[in-house]
Amino acid sequence: MVSEVPTRRRSSAHSPFTLGFSLIAIINYEMGNLRSVQKALEKVGHAAEVTDDPAKIAAAEKLVLPGVGAFADAMAALRERNLVEPLKAAIAAGKPTLGICLGMQLLFEKSYEAGEHEGLGILPGEVVKFDVPRKYKVPHMGWNQLAFEQRAPIFAGIDEGAYFYFVHSYYVVPKESQIIATTTDYPEAFCSSLWRDNLFATQFHPEKSQTVGLQVLKNFAGIG
To answer: N or C: which end of the chain has fewer CB within 10 A?
Structure first.
């Protein structure tokens, strides 16, 4: 997969955090389309800051964990920046959190991408590679539909069968089927989003999914 290479962002004296504004923290471990997520949130009217500062993560009202790239590299980057425990603590404290693409996969116990690697372990389950008929390409890339298993708050106003944009070779297999929010066929159904309490995650990229994607981000940002 092709990953954007973000510039590391440090807070300024005029950061919304220092001014005390309500803000969404986009966790920066230098893997993923961070700026695209930030711009999409700003487009729907919500301040967001890309940060790798544990204090800012603790201060934020909501968190976004994006990601594009290799699972093992992402976990190593989170550990290197001492972001694992602040992220787990924020989720345990009930802060609304959204994982996107690789950020969704990192929430699980382990991944079989290029070996076997330990994830954050917040959700029971694993990450496996597509094993599909030859006519289906891997990575699964492009627009595909959602089928609802349950109506998570982030999908308010989204129609059954709406199309979202995907780019991934691996997908999550939750041990708890009740957390699956949507499935998508490729060609068999896989978990394309999930919801457990304050924790949401999408395998698709809402920031790349045009109007429906912006609606998902708006819904997430508006969660009380």
So the answer is: C
Q: Active site residue: 30, 113, 149, 207, which one? A: 207
DSSP 93-130: TT--EEEETHHHHTTEEEE-TTS-EE---SEEEEEEE-
Question: Does the residue 9 lie in any domain?
Answer: no
For the chain (224 residues), the mean pLDDT of every run of 10, in chain order, is 37 41 84 91 95 93 95 96 95 97 98 97 98 96 98 97 98 98 98 98 98 98 91
Q: Is 207 a catalytic residue?
A: yes
Model confidence, pTM: 0.90
We report the CATH number of the domain holding residue 134 as: 3.40.50.880
Domain count, the chain: 1
Let me know if residue 151 belongs to a domain. yes
Active-site annotation holds for 205: yes
- The residue type of 7 is T
